[in-house]
Amino acid sequence: MTPIVYDYIIIGAGAAGLMLADAMGEDPFFKDAAILLLDKDTKNTNDRTWCFWEKGEGQFDAIVHKQWHQILFTGKQFTKQYKIKPYTYKMVRGIDFYNTYMGRVATYPNITFKQATVENVVEEATRVKVITTSTAFIGKKVLNSIFSYDMLQYQQKYPVLQQHFIGWVIRSKSAIFNKEVATYMDFSIPQKNNTRFMYVLPYSEHTALVEYTLFSKDTLPKAEYETAIKAYINEILGCTDYEIVEKEMGSIPMTCYNFKEYQSKRIRTIGTAGGWAKPSTGYTFMSTAQKVPTLVSFLKTGKPLNTLSFKNRFWYYDLLLLDVLYDKNHMGHTIFQGLFKNRKPQLIFKFLDEKTTLLEELYYIAGCPKLLFTKALFKRILGRR
User: Fold this and answer.
1) Cβ atoms 137, 115 nearer than 8 A
2) Predicted pLDDT of residue 98
C-alpha cells in the first residue's frame, strides 16, 4: 500500500502545534493541503498551566480560567502591590486549551490527528520521513515541536538556564488568599546562591496555585521543591490545614540559542524547540501565539523553512540578562527588585512583549543594576564568554 504523502506534518499537539494546526486549518490557502498532526498523548489531562498578560480582550478569553488586575512583587528590601491596568494577568489551564483546540482541529477535513510516539525525523532528497514506534509517515514539510535539553548541550556560545518549578494547587480550610492579587514574584524566601522565588495564583480565598520557581542552571531533587512549598505555606501564608488538589512541574529553557542546527529546507522546529520561549522569562504561550501568524504567512511563500528568522533587538537584551544570571545567578533577586522598585509594571510588561520604543528601552535598562550589565556587554563585545 502506497503511504499517504502529507503536505505538512506537525509533530506535537501542545500550544505551538495546536495553534499552528488551527491557524492553517482556518486559512483558505491550505484547504487543499493534507496536514497530519502527531502526538504521543491524547491530550485529555490537565498537565500544565499557561499564564500571560494582555491589554483588554484577547483571542483566548473564552478559555481563560482566572484573571487578575493586580500583582504583588516582594523582594528582600522592597514590597509593593500594583494595579496593572490596562493589562490583565490571565491564566489558561492545559485541559481547557486542549479540549478547545483539539475540537477545532477535528472540524478541518484536511487535518488528521494520530496518536503516535515519534522516534526520529529524517530528511531525504525530496521529502521527510517521520518515524514512530509503530509506523513511518512521509511529509513534504515538517514542523517539529519536540524539545530535549540534549539539543542544547553541544553549543557553548549561548548560556543555558532553566526556569524549573513545582507547583501545588492547594485548598485551605481558612480564607488565606486575596483572590484579586496574583503574587508575581516573592523573593523573600532563601535564595541559596540562586534566583529563587514563589509564585502564587489565587483562584479564590481558599484555593490557589503555589509554585516554587528557579532561574538556574540545574534542577533540584523533587523533595527540595516540595519542602520549600510546605515551608512557604506554613510560615509565610500561615496555613497548616490544607489539601493538595493538583500538582504540576516543569522546566523551560532560557536561552538565546536559535536551534538552527535542527532546521533545514523542509524541517522547522517550533515552540520551545524552535526557541519560541521568551529567553529572559520562559513565558511561551503568548510568544507562540504571536509567532504562529508569521510562520503561517511564511509557509505560503514556499521558501526554505530554515530561512525564517525571528531575531530582533530584544534578542540582544535577553542575551545580556542571561549572561548576567548565568555568571551571577545569586543576583537575580537584586535585578528584579531594582526593576520593580524603579519602573512601573506596565513598562516591564510592554518591554517583555517587545513593543517598546528605543527611548522606552533605554529608560527600562537604566532601572537595572548598571555595572552588572555593562560588564556583560563588554564581555560579549570582546568575545570572552
Assistant:
1) no
2) 98
Q: Is the pTM of this model over 0.85?
A: yes
> What grid cell was written down for 126?
525530496
Cell digits for 289? 501565539
Q: How confident is the model at residue 154 (pLDDT cuts 50, 70, 90)?
A: confident
Residue 354 contacts residue 360 (beta carbons within 8 Å): no
Residue type at position 82: Y
Mean residue pLDDT across the chain: 95
At 4 the pLDDT is 84
Spatial distance between the Cα atoms of 340 and 160, rounded to a whole number of angstroms: 25
What is the C-alpha to C-alpha distance for residues 43 and 318, in angstroms, rounded to an integer?
32
Angle at which helices 345-352 and 332-342 cross, to 10°: 120
| H-type alpha helices, the chain | 15-26, 94-106, 222-231, 285-301, 313-327, 332-342, 345-352, 358-365, 370-382
Q: Percent of the chain scored above 90 by pLDDT?
A: 91
Query: What angle is formed at CA 25 by the lines to CA 12 and CA 271, rounded to 5 degrees?
Result: 30
Half-sphere exposure of residue 357, counting CA atoms within 13 Å on the CB side? 2
Q: What is the DSSP string of 39-100?
A: ESS---S---EEEEEEES--TTGGGEEEEESEEEEE-SS-EEEEE-TTEEEEEEEHHHHHHH
- φ and ψ at 174, to 5 degrees? -100, 165
Model pLDDT for residues 187-217, shown as the tens digit of each residue: 999 999 999 999 999 999 999 999 999 999 9
Residue 39: count of CB within 10 angstroms of its CB: 23
How does pLDDT run across 92-101, given as a tens digit for each residue? 999 999 999 9
Rounded CA separation 295/308 (Å):
8
